[in-house]
Amino acid sequence: MIEFLFLLVFAVVLVCTGVSILGMALAVAAGFIVMAVAGMIGVMFKMLPWLLLIVVGVWFYREHKTEQTHRKRYYR
């Protein structure tokens, strides 16, 4: 939502300063790209602890699973 408000205010400021429509469109497109990348990086950092927890959980599960198959194979 903040990204959208930023782009809206940015476009209004460009119109008020007398920038042409083409210049405004290019500036808003560039601003959109920058804000989209910044938003994705923010989401990545926000999700990083959960992704690390999932990776550790899968690693423990695989270690436990291979231990059980080795036990079954040797103790039969």
Folded structure, characterized:
- The chain has 76 residues and is mainly alpha-helical.
- It is 92% helix and 0% strand.
- The protein has one domain.
- It has helices at residues 2-17, 21-74.
- It is rod-shaped.
- The termini are far apart.
- The model has no long low-confidence stretch (mean pLDDT 85).
Name the helix and strand elements from N-terminus to C-terminus, one letter apiece: HH
Task: Report the total helices.
Answer: 2
The average pLDDT is: 85
Tell me the structural class. mainly alpha
Distance between the termini: 61 Å
Main pleated sheet: none
Number of strands: 0
Domain unit count? 1
Integer-rounded radius of gyration = 25 Å
Helix content: over 70%
Which residue ranges are poorly predicted, with pLDDT under 50 across at least 5 consecutive positions? Answer: none
Pfam family, one: Phageshock_PspG
Protein name: Envelope stress response protein PspG
Keywords: Membrane, Transmembrane, Transmembrane helix
Main attributes of the structure:
single chain; 76 residues; mainly alpha
What is this structure's SSE topology?
Elements lengths: L1 H16 L3 H54 L2
Helix pairs in contact: 1-2
Summarize the structure.
The chain is mainly α and 76 residues long. The protein is built from two helices and no strands.
